[in-house]
């Protein structure tokens, strides 16, 4: 693949198929090493070979190494075939393939930017849609509350109307008559109270006149003029 058209194409795209193949082969070798390390530990445990028994431990290591060598030889051959096949067919550029020009590359880049902008707009629209959805739920709740309040007011109004219907004209006449009767009784009570107050006032005046008459008759003729004027003032107050 070195020096071929395929290599030039992949280099222009910052791609290297050989690096990918080498990493895949290294990964396989790492898995094989880990598998045989586990196999060695498990075999020592199963055969009950301790570290102090160097002869048995060495024999086990030699046997595992031989099996590992046989397995790796087969794996290496298969990996070489896989590498050759991949480079020849999987990473080969078809005949007639032409690298995109700089303008086309710029167009692809612009398309990518446009896609990013479109994604951002879609995200913004999703956020707005979520906000509108939440607001719609709140409005639905408020509408249901208003409907419940309206139903409650209608029910109260219906009860009031039913109550008013109970009071027909005859009932209103009876109520008016009762109110008139109560007003008459109240007026009579007020008149009686005024009469009692007037009688009490007149009785008080008469009593005061009697008392002042006694005081005046008890005065001597040698009384002073000031005492007479005082008595006259008391009479005027009555």
UniProtKB/TrEMBL annotation:
Main location: nucleus
Keywords assigned by UniProt, alphabetized: Cell cycle, Cell division, Centromere, Chromosome, Coiled coil, Kinetochore, Mitosis
Subcellular localization: Chromosome, Centromere, Kinetochore
GO cellular component: MIS12/MIND type complex; nucleus
GO biological process, one term: cell division
Pfam families: Mis12
Family in the record: Belongs to the mis12 family.
Name of the protein this chain belongs to: Centromere protein Mis12
Organism per entry: Arabidopsis suecica
